[in-house]
Design goal:
The structure is a single chain. It contains nine helices and six strands; from the N terminus they run E-E-H-E-H-H-H-H-E-H-E-E-H-H-H. The radius of gyration is 16 Å and the shape is globular. The protein is an alpha/beta fold and 211 residues long. The longest helix has 17 residues.
């Protein structure tokens, strides 16, 4: 299945999102860019589709793929696209029907977007049902990946005398690839991920994310 065409040049807009701390800004561990927030929403949906209260690394990775493939596709050979899709759907334990339905929905939404303001209703609609429910927990493996991403990101927000890491999709993807010895890292490498190119883009980006 061919999914989202590559888009050249333009950098996406972003919005930061506090993680952890229960609303206390002094306890925030890191912030997400807008594209990563969107992937996180999808990851939560995937976890709930399995009746799980824990979000796994595979959930976030699949969320990144579905919501932001036009950016992340540059780190793979275009010929490997079907292999990547099969791999992600398999590790997330998502049926082909549900997987393709989500892809089609998000592809339609992305075609409607003209600037970052148009994305806010989508994020609100995704999160509206979650307000009355307890938040999902991160697995230990996902928490470790995000912690590592916070260690390598070149972006920080200065707040109340602290430097809060800003996590990008590239940094998170690199951290997943660097989780050496794990099954997901080995399988990700087998899909043909260009780790050298990803590392350069994650650690030495051409432009800073808009927050």
């Amino acid at each position: 299945m061919r999914l989202f065409g590559r888009k050249g040049g333009a950098a996406p807009n972003h919005r930061d999102s506090a993680q952890g701390g229960n609303g206390n800004p002094d306890a925030v561990a890191y912030r997400f860019t807008l594209d990563l927030m969107r992937a996180e929403q999808l990851a939560g949906m995937m976890a709930k589709s399995r009746s799980s209260r824990v979000v796994e690394v595979a959930d976030l990775l699949a969320g990144m793929y579905i919501s932001d493939w036009d950016r992340l596709s540059e780190f793979w050979d275009e010929r490997n696209q079907e292999e990547i899709e099969d791999f992600l759907r398999g590790i997330c334990q998502i049926s082909p029907q549900r997987w393709h339905a989500w892809i089609q929905f998000y592809d339609g939404e992305r075609k409607k977007e003209r600037d970052w303001k148009n994305r806010l209703p989508l994020l609100r609609s995704l999160g509206k049902k979650e307000l009355s429910e307890p938040p999902l927990e991160q697995s230990a493996a996902l928490a470790a990946v995000l912690h590592q991403a916070g260690q390598i990101t070149p972006f920080y927000e200065r707040s109340t005398g602290r430097s809060i890491p800003i996590l990008t999709s590239e940094c998170v993807l690199l951290s997943i690839a660097r989780s050496y010895g794990t099954e997901i890292s080995r399988k990700l490498a087998a899909t043909g991920l260009n780790a050298a190119k990803l590392e350069k883009r994650a650690l030495s980006p051409k432009r800073a994310p808009l927050i």
